Each structure stands twice: as structure tokens, then as C-alpha cells.
# Entry
Amino acid sequence: MVRTPFIDRDGIKRGAWSEDEDNKLKTFVERFGHSNWRQLPKYAGLMRCGKSCRLRWMNYLRPDLKKGNYCLEEEQLIIKLHKELGNRWSAIAAKLPGRSDNNIKNHWHAHLKKRTPRLTNNTTSSTSTSEQFTDDEAGYDMKELPIISCDLSNKLNGITDWIEEDNNHIKTMEQFSCINSVEPPFCWTEPIDNFQTEITSDINIWSEPLFDNFWTQPFF
DNA sequence: AAGCTAATCAACCGCCTGACG
DNA sequence: ACGTCAGGCGGTTGATTAGCT
# Structure
């Protein structure tokens, strides 16, 4: 999943890092630090440019780097911070120990972006209205979901009481919507007013798409 | 099985900023 | 004030993998 290694015309190696290169860089930085990235490759015996070494260290070799999947709390925090800070990935990464800005950025574009943009517009002021509503973006807004859920809870007292009584059940729709890898039911993207009307008038109208989803089914 | 498409993520590029002379 | 250099940041690219037809 990485670029094929090659030597450019300046004799600098580019593309994927070999295990040997990783070891050289890791050993050197752990022993001598990285006070000067430009000079580092020369002394570490690497045919790389300083920028490339820095990037490799920051995004992959750093000992404090966390590997593996993002947990629910991390994803929620990223979404929250992105709302506050916009695309300032380094600032976001600073609040998520063990995650690199590059990694967070990739995760955002791959997994989280599609859950957020439709209902809000305050993070990217330069984005035009037509750009907000692309077909490939599901457009879920995590911040809005608790509002919907509270109202939904008021309307459906019996169901919500049952949910609240049992600590093992999901407490709110906010948590409900953040279960990894499964999109929230499409009815949440409907305008809130219509949604509420549908709920109060005829439960059968809205309930079907909810039940179609395997993780919503047990709670209804 | 083969071909195509989408998703993933490491790595690169270009620009910006701050330090220094 | 200006130029140069190094580090850092955000956007983009491209190789690989997974999933679908």
C-alpha cells in the first residue's frame, strides 16, 4: 500500500521504507535524538531526505505511537475537535496521545467525514452550499443526534424508560449512532420536524428502516 | 477466475512560519 | 528590512488490498 522505492536524480531514495532503513532511523533517533532532521540521514547512514525521515519517525516509528483501530471515544473526540478546530490536524493530534496528525487525517477522510457534514456548516466557511451535499456523503451530524434522541425519547416514553432502566442497553442515541462500521439508519437524516411528526402519527412509518439494521433491532 | 471499483493509508509535495544572520 | 534555512502542516497522490460483479 506504499509507493515503490526508487532513487531520484539527486541520489535520494524515495518511496516505501525497508525494515533496514526503519531500524537505522529508529536506532539513531533513540540514541542521539533529532535536533537536525536535515543532517540526520547523513549521520544515520540513510539515503533519504530529512523531511522523509521526520515523516517516517512521526507517523510510524515513534515509540509512543498507538497502532490498531480507533476506539469509540477517540472517534467521538476527533469529531468534536474537528468541529472546534477544523482541519488543524496537528492540533487535533495533540489532544489524542499516540495518534499522528497524518493518521487522524486519513481516518477522518476514510471513516468520519461522511458522518458529519450535512447538517452543519460552521467548520468550513469556504465550502459552498452545493459542495456540502454530495451524493457520496451520508451527512450524519453527531452533534445533532442527541437532540433528535431526546425528543424521540419524550415521544416514546415506554421504550426510553425501558432503555434507561437497563445499564447494559445503550443509554442515548448519541452512543447508538457511533457504533463502528455501521451507518445510522437513514431516517435520522430526514428533517427533524418531519421525523417527529412521523413518530407521533404512525410508528410504523419510521420504524421499518430502523429495524432493517441489525444493531438497532434488539433495542426496539 | 478475472476484471473492475472502492477503500485504505504511507509517503510526497508545496506552502507557511519562525529563527537567525 | 531582507534572505536563507529548517521544521512543521495540510492537501494530494498512488500502490495495494478487499469486495463486488
User: Anything to note?
Assistant: Residues 19-32 of chain A form the longest helix (14 residues). The CA atoms of residues 28 and 215 of chain A lie 49 Å apart. The two ends of chain A are 42 Å apart (CA to CA).
